[in-house]
Amino acid sequence: MSVRLHVACAEVAPGTVVDGSIDGRFVVVWRTLDGVLVAGEGRCPHQWSPLDREGLVDGEELVCVAHGWRFATDGTGTKVNVKGRRDPKADLTSYPCREVEGQIWVDL
Ligand code: FES
Q1: What does the pLDDT look like over 16-37, one tens digit per residue?
Q2: CA 45–ligand 1 middle distance (angstroms)
Q3: pLDDT digits 0-9 by tens, 44-63
Q4: Dmax over Cα atoms in the chain, in whole Å?
């Protein structure tokens, strides 16, 4: 089901994270520093932190600051330990999204 979010493209500048929840579904929308728009489940798969408030963009990843899990644009979850080793974690459900005439459409 494709839905238009209440968030406009202009509200999601590179490096920002916003709440795109709609119709009772938690949706987070964020834009990488390179400008790629991403939409996904609004709750972290670790302990359900709300990613619109506890998510930060770090380059091309969304980081949940609660415990440091990181999510790639395709939702792949990882965590980097203090020695720099990247370990797999649960993935964030990602939703295909597109920008049409300044509006964001997401396939839920
Ligand atoms: S709740 Fe997101 S990393 Fe723990």
Answers
A1: 999 999 999 999 999 999 999 9
A2: 7
A3: 999 999 999 999 999 999 99
A4: 44
Does the pTM surpass 0.90? The reply is yes
Q: Where are the domains of the chain?
A: 2-107
Where are the extended beta strands (E) located within the chain?
Answer: 2-8, 17-19, 27-31, 37-41, 55-58, 61-64, 70-71, 77-80, 86-89, 94-95, 97-100, 103-107
CB 62 within 8 A of CB 17: yes
CA 65 / ligand 1 centre spacing (Å): 7
Q: Select from 17, 41, 47 the residue to mutate for testing ligand 1; criterion: most ligand atoms less than 8 Å from CB.
A: 47
Atom nearest to 44 CA in ligand 1:
2
**What is the residue with the minimal CA distance to atom 1 of ligand 1?**
47
- Please tell me the predicted confidence (pLDDT) of residue 35: 98
The CATH code of the domain at 2-107 is 2.102.10.10
